[in-house]
Structures are given as structure tokens and as C-alpha cells.
Design brief:
- The protein is mostly helical.
- The chain has 2 domains: 243 residues, no CATH class; 156 residues, no CATH class.
- Helix content is 72%, strand content 0%.
- It has 17 helices and no strands.
- Helix 7 packs parallel to helix 9 and helix 7 packs antiparallel against helix 16.
- This is O-antigen ligase-related domain-containing protein.
Length: 411
């Protein structure tokens, strides 16, 4: 019997380690996993009459949001049925996060399995993408598109997708029980951050690079504050890595043009950028429709494609798939009310990151969780559709880790 239980636990840990790979590479399997875990979690809670978790602030807000976008928004939406179904399907994301936070990621063994899975997956993605950069094709024969890399995804997303989990891997390194020397810990973390920066720099993804740079600065500053005895060593090692990375970066002129120079022109000429051609029409569509309650979740593409919005440019310029910014998307599709509810939800999430972790000996857990959060919710960052299954599954997976890692019970 004990052997059966041990075998069952080992299989569970293996599945947990494979979860990041499934979520990044298989939209269908990720969606099936999310629904099954949510259903099993509800059944478990019903069986043991354990509903205390349901009063958690961020979960309560997410249920209020789900009810609002399912039953209020469709009333004023032009495509009310799709707004209703799109809103109702939203419930599975916070339910999945609750299952991960209060059921799955609740022991050190489970955290280790999950984080090890993230770490190994990132090593594979980085190695494969770097091979593609230097040889012209990756391990699967995928080739770059222009100056931008695809990595094993065969799409222009290796930096964007990897960014969502990269600070989980850095946290895994920092809190590793196998690293006992404080200086080795510092060297390992700074090395990981610079490898991550160089990797995303090579992909040519500007937004992902800027977000990685921001998160890295936050972590270095936090280490400087917490590790008082290692401050000089931390600054010296960071400076050495910065100089070496700069030499390498400036030797790659085509990527310098894409990642740095084009970013500069993108910022100063934003009104003429591709991003502006998407966001300005999105705000215009919001203003010309029901600005209070929005056009309905997942309705943007259908509304944007209508002929009456041709004054905002061609379909190609408008890029009607989604508004390309999470906050603009919430404003357009859920209106002012939904946008404000979403902001309140984020406040509850951030509060939980630091509510207990800041007073814990492991206070940096909250910093790592916040950096993971910023990879998606940094306001000025362009983004993929928040409601699209492939990106939403990764967002909620990383958010689940952040919420679980900073729980009082775990700290």
C-alpha cells in the first residue's frame, strides 16, 4: 500500500514538472488540464466541506468580475450571445489559480517539482533559440523570420512566452537548498538574470526585453537591500556582467538596430507606430460604443472589422485581433466598470504578494512574485489577448505560482 501511495505521489510530481511545458506548447492540453483541475478542486472542497479559500480577496473579486462580464456586459453589447459565452468561460481561470494555490502547490516537494520543470524547460528554450540565432535554424529545423527568432515555437514568441516564467526559474535558483554559500547564490542569480537578458535581446522582442530589464533591476536592488554583507560583491559582479554583456550586445548590430535603436524611435514616434495604429482605434471604438459596460469579452475582433470603423485605417492597420494592451482590452471589452473591477482585483493580488512575505525571513519571495506579475501586467507593455486561451493559460499559471508562493501557510 505504501509503495502504491509513493508511486502515485511520484506520478503527481512528474505531471507537475511537465505542466509548464504543456502550458507553453499545447493550447488544447492546457485548457483540458485547467478545466479538469478546477472541477476536481471543487469536488474535493465539496467532499471535505472546505470553502474557506473562497473568501480570499482576489478570488472574490474575480468571481464578481466573472458575474459582471457574463450577465451585465452582454445587456448592452452588440453581439450579446458571444459576450455572454465569453464572459462565462472566464470563471475557469481564477478557479484554476485557486486550485493551484490552495490544493496543488502546497508542499515543498510540489514547488520543487514545478519549479524544476520551469528551469529545465527554460534551459531547453534558451539553448534551442540561441542555436537558431547562430546557425540559422533550431533543433527542429525552424528558421528565424527576418531578424527575429522563433525558437522551438516556430512563432515570434520565444521571448514573450519565456518571460512569463523566467523569474520563477531565478527564484528557484536563489532559494535552492543546494546553494549554501551566499556569494555563490549571488553569482548564480546575477548570471541567470544576464543570461535571460541576452536571450531575450537576441529574440528581437522589444517589449519582452524591456520587461526583463525592469524585473532584473528590481531584483538587483532588492538583493542590495537584503544582503547587506554582500553589497560590494553584488555591485562588482553585476558591473562585470554588465560590461561583458554590453560588449557582446554591441557586436550584434542587426539586433542592436531591432531591440535598442528601433525601441528609441518607437517611443519618440509612438503616435506613428504600429502600436498606436492599434490602440488609438481601440480607444475610439470604446468611446463610440457602450463605454460604461463595454462591447463584450472576445467581441473586439467582430466589432473592429465593421465598415463603420474604416476611418481609423485599413483592417491591416487596425489589426483587429485584439487591442494589444491588457488594460485597453479590459476598458474596451468590459467598459469603465469592468476596467475598475480589474484594477481592484490586481490590488488584492499585489497585496497578497507582500502581506506576509515582507515580514518573513524569505521576504524576497514577494519580490520575485511581483516581478513575475510585472511580466504580464506592466501597464505600458504591449501584450497578446488576455482572454485568448494560449496566452491566458500561461498568465494564470505564473500568477498561480506567485500567489501560492507568498501564502502565509507556506512562508
Amino acid at each position: 500500500m505504501q509503495r502504491f501511495v509513493a508511486s502515485k505521489e511520484s506520478i503527481g510530481l512528474l505531471m507537475l514538472a511537465l505542466m509548464p511545458t504543456v502550458f507553453l506548447f499545447s493550447r488544447a492540453l492546457a485548457d483540458i488540464t485547467i478545466v479538469i483541475l478546477g472541477a476536481l478542486f471543487l469536488y474535493k472542497c465539496y467532499l471535505y466541506k472546505d470553502w474557506q479559500w473562497a473568501s480570499t480577496g482576489w478570488f472574490v473579486m474575480s468571481m464578481i468580475i466573472t458575474a459582471y462580464i457574463s450577465f451585465i456586459v452582454p445587456i448592452g453589447a452588440e453581439f450579446s450571445l458571444s459576450a455572454f459565452t465569453g464572459g462565462l468561460s472566464y470563471y475557469r481561470w481564477p478557479l484554476f489559480a485557486a486550485a493551484m494555490c490552495f490544493w496543488i502547490l502546497t508542499t515543498e516537494k510540489r514547488f520543487f517539482a514545478f519549479e524544476l520543470g520551469v528551469f529545465v524547460l527554460l534551459i531547453f528554450i534558451v539553448v534551442d533559440t540561441v542555436i537558431q540565432y547562430f546557425t540559422g535554424s533550431d533543433m527542429f529545423g525552424y528558421k528565424p523570420i527576418g531578424v527575429r527568432l522563433t525558437g522551438p515555437f516556430n512563432k515570434l514568441i520565444p521571448g514573450t512566452f519565456s518571460l512569463r516564467i523566467i523569474f520563477i526559474a531565478v527564484s528557484f535558483i536563489y532559494f535552492s537548498q543546494y546553494i549554501t554559500n551566499e556569494r555563490v547564490r549571488v553569482i548564480s542569480v546575477i548570471s541567470a538574470l544576464f543570461i535571460g537578458l541576452i536571450f531575450i535581446f537576441l529574440t528581437g522582442e522589444r517589449g519582452a526585453f524591456l520587461s526583463m530589464f525592469l524585473g532584473s533591476i528590481i531584483i538587483v536592488i532588492s538583493l542590495f537591500i537584503v544582503l547587506k554583507r554582500q553589497r560590494k560583491f553584488l555591485l562588482l559582479f553585476t558591473l562585470i556582467f554588465f560590461i561583458l554583456s554590453s560588449f557582446f550586445a554591441f557586436s550584434q548590430q542587426k539586433i542592436i538596430n531591432r531591440t535598442f535603436i528601433s525601441s528609441y524611435h518607437y517611443i519618440i514616434d509612438w503616435k506613428d507606430s504600429a502600436s498606436a495604429k492599434v490602440i488609438v482605434p481601440a480607444i475610439g471604438i470604446w468611446q463610440e460604443n457602450n463605454s460604461l459596460t463595454g462591447i463584450g469579452v472576445k467581441n473586439y475582433s467582430d466589432v473592429c472589422r465593421q465598415d463603420k470603423y474604416e476611418h481609423y485605417g485599413s483592417l491591416i492597420d487596425r489589426n483587429c485581433y485584439h487591442p494589444h494592451n491588457i488594460y485597453v482590452q479590459w476598458l474596451v471589452e468590459a467598459g469603465v466598470i469592468g476596467f475598475l473591477l480589474f484594477l481592484v482585483f490586481l490590488v488584492f493580488v499585489i497585496r497578497d504578494f507582500f502581506r506576509y512575505s515582507w515580514f518573513s525571513p524569505q521576504r524576497l519571495v514577494g519580490i520575485f512574485a511581483f516581478c513575475v506579475f510585472l511580466t504580464t501586467f506592466w501597464p505600458i507593455m504591449g501584450s497578446m489577448s488576455f482572454f485568448h486561451n494560449s496566452i491566458a493559460s500561461i498568465i494564470w499559471l505564473s500568477l498561480s505560482w506567485s500567489l501560492a508562493k507568498t501564502r502565509k501557510e507556506y512562508l
